[in-house]
Amino acid sequence: MQGKPEIIPMLLLEGRTFLFKEYSKKALSVLSKDLRRRNFEKLYVMDVDGVERNKPQLDIIQALSDDFSVLYEAGPRRGANVVDLVIAGADMAYMSTLSLASLREIEVALTYSENVGFKVDWNEHIQGHGKMIEGAALSDVIKGALHYGVKDFVVPVEIIGETASLLQGSDAVLRAIADRPGDEKTVDARIKSLIISIEHLPEEVAK
Length: 207
Fold this sequence. Notes:
The chain is an alpha/beta fold and 207 residues long. The chain has a single domain (6-200), classed as Alpha-Beta Barrel (TIM Barrel). 29% of the residues lie in helices and 22% in strands. The chain contains seven helices and eight strands. It has an eight-stranded parallel β-barrel with strand order 1-2-3-4-5-6-7-8, surrounded by four helices. Helix 6 crosses helix 7. The chain starts with 5 loop residues before the first strand and ends in a 10-residue tail after the last strand.
């Protein structure tokens, strides 16, 4: 966990209905060209429809994976659900505290793919209702995820320090989400990546 963190744009997917498709092929093409022009090669996609409604927008991930290495958070409830995310083109599929039925589902997921990460949802305490998650301390959840084999963690900026301490001595990667105004200015050598909302991105990144 050393050096300047890489910058990864974060795209939110939310609100698809039977009649409304959030991104047309043309819109995706324009988005991809703009981000590639700015030297971004990875993309973190937070699929709110997947997390909140269990209806991930897999077709958009398929399209984006042609142009980017996609880190995909879509709210799988069970370990077996990560298969669909990986098949759709995700290079890393994240299970999150907000949607997991149980922390043990991480172990199940890793039997299907080694490309499974863990995202901590946080609002002064851990968000989620799954077994071994609801009411648990951050230390217990992080240590549990490590025990089940996680090597890629995503946390909000405000708990970088505590999480980094808990991961000390492991070979796990730590990434931080900067989704509030001002978070994008975070500089912390303990994180591998800073995941920034598209509207707060720098104009371009150095290769």
